[in-house]
Design a protein that fits this description.
138 residues, alpha+beta, 4 helices, 36% helix
Length: 138
């Protein structure tokens, strides 16, 4: 995916869910509206639609590191996208194939790309990318 670009169609709207957080015993939020992340150029464009009502914990970071990597930051929408892709491992290409399967490695690269689109500083982006990539490699 080197040299591939991406874009979001809108900012994500997030609301805290006290009920789900209590049920799951961890803080959970849900999306207010669906949003789309586009990957690549129009003729070969792939995209992901994250539906409204999707539950997420934001960036899954151990609490002791929240001072540096809180669950929500400039990368928050990328974290929601990553959570959705980790659960589904599917992209759509030009609207023709809603079941284009992607690997966990590709999902992690899309996360990195989305963080770049959102303006996440380079060092923070690299640390977060390698943290999820190493976690998924275990």
């Amino acid at each position: 995916m080197a040299g591939v670009t991406g874009s979001f169609d809108q900012e994500v709207g997030i609301r805290y869910s006290a009920i789900q957080s209590k049920l799951k015993d961890k803080d959970l939020w849900f999306t207010d509206d669906e949003f789309t992340f586009y990957i690549g150029v129009v003729k070969d464009q792939k995209y992901v639609i994250v539906p409204d009502g999707f539950f997420t914990d934001g960036a899954t970071v151990p609490r002791f590191l929240w001072w540096m990597f809180p669950p929500w930051g400039v990368y928050g929408q990328a974290a929601v996208l990553h959570d959705f892709l980790c659960q589904n491992l599917r992209l759509t290409k030009n609207g023709d194939n809603p079941d284009l399967t992607v690997s966990q490695t590709e999902v992690d690269k899309i996360f990195e790309m989305a963080m770049k689109v959102l303006g996440t500083p380079w060092i923070k982006r690299k640390i977060m990318y390698w943290a999820v990539h190493l976690y998924h490699s275990l």
